[in-house]
Each structure stands twice: as structure tokens, then as C-alpha cells.
Amino acid sequence: MMEENLCCAIIGQPPMRFPWGFDEEDSGCQNLKLALAQKIMELRQLGVTRFAVVADCGVGLYAGECINALRRTVPHLMLFVVTPHEEQATKWAPYLRERYFRLLEECTIMEAASLHWTQECEYDAYRKIIDYADVVLAVYDPATARGDAVDRAMEYAKTSNFPIIMHI
Questions:
Q1: How far apart are CA 43 and CA 8, in angstroms?
Q2: CATH fold of 6-167, please?
Q3: What is the pTM of this model?
């Protein structure tokens, strides 16, 4: 059994690496969100009270929204959000931008990995939440690896000897 007050970093591959892409009404996406919520509840029952996500338009947003909803009934939970850079959502679709800013407003702590976009800012954001965590929940399929920031973050977590819970 885990001790109370542990932190879980939640990372995941970008939407275009899922068969449904950005279609959140697709049953695959709905099932993923449900499974993610169940894992978050399981982790909570095992003593995780702090969660950390990178504010991306996929798994980070899904998990952050789930945790913020849970925080309404379990107020001692904390959500730490790291944005890769401050202008991240400027080119996102309006409905995603609205959710992104709501996530930032409702989280416990927010931080930007970089002021402006850099080639490493997304990877730096993932490293920051992994370094902060005691365990990593990864929504990730290694068969879709492209060498991007998420893939590099997964390698970083593995080589850092963090317990990793894989889900896809």
C-alpha cells in the first residue's frame, strides 16, 4: 500500500497518434477518458493526492479536467499544471482554448516551462512533472513512437526508475 500525499505525473501521446484524432465523441476516445478517470480514482485510493499534467490538447487536458472535477468533492487533491510555453494555446481551436484556460484557472498550481516556444519546451514541461512525481501514469503506445517530446519523456521516466503505470 502506498503512503498518503504521493504525486502522479500523467503523460500521454498527442491526439493525432490515436485512431480518433481530435474526435472526442468517438467511442475509443470516450473509453479512454473513462479508463483514465478510473485509473485516477484507483491512484487516489492508493494515496495519491497530487497530480501533475502538461497542458496539452489531449491526455493532459482530459486528465486535468477529470482531476478538477474530482477536486470539487475531494478538495484536498491538488493539480499541478505545466504549460510548455505561455503562448501555447494561441492557435488552438476556440473550444480547446476555452477548456485550456478553464483548466489553468481551476488548477492548484500553474507554471510555464518556458516564456516562449523553444524546440525543447514541451520536453522540458514533461521532465518537470516527471521530476515532481512519485509515479507516472502513461497513456502511451510505444508502437506509435516518432521521437517527439512524449517519446523522449517516456524514455526519461524509464531511465529515472520511476514506477510507470502504462495504459492504452
A1: 8
A2: Rossmann fold (3.40.50)
A3: 0.93
Alpha helices, DSSP H, located in 12-167: 27-45, 59-71, 94-106, 121-132, 149-159
Domain ranges in the chain are: 6-167
Tell me the C-alpha distance between 92 and 100, whole Å. 9
- Cα–Cα distance measured from residue 122 to residue 87, given in angstroms and rounded to the nearest whole number: 12
Q: Which of 113, 140, 142 is nearest to 54 (CA)?
A: 113
- Picking from 41, 2, 7, the residue whose alpha carbon sits closest to that of residue 130 is 7
Instruction: Note the maximum CA span of the chain.
Output: 43
Helix or strand (DSSP H, E) at 164: strand 164-167
DSSP state of 3: P
> Across the strands, what pairs with 112?
83
Give me the tens of pLDDT residue by residue for the chain, a chain 168 residues long: 445 789 999 999 989 999 999 999 999 999 999 999 999 999 999 999 999 999 899 999 999 999 999 999 998 999 999 999 999 999 999 999 999 999 999 999 999 999 999 999 999 999 999 999 999 999 998 888 899 999 999 999 998 877 888 766
Is the backbone of residue 147 left (phi > 0), alpha (psi -120 to 50) or beta? left
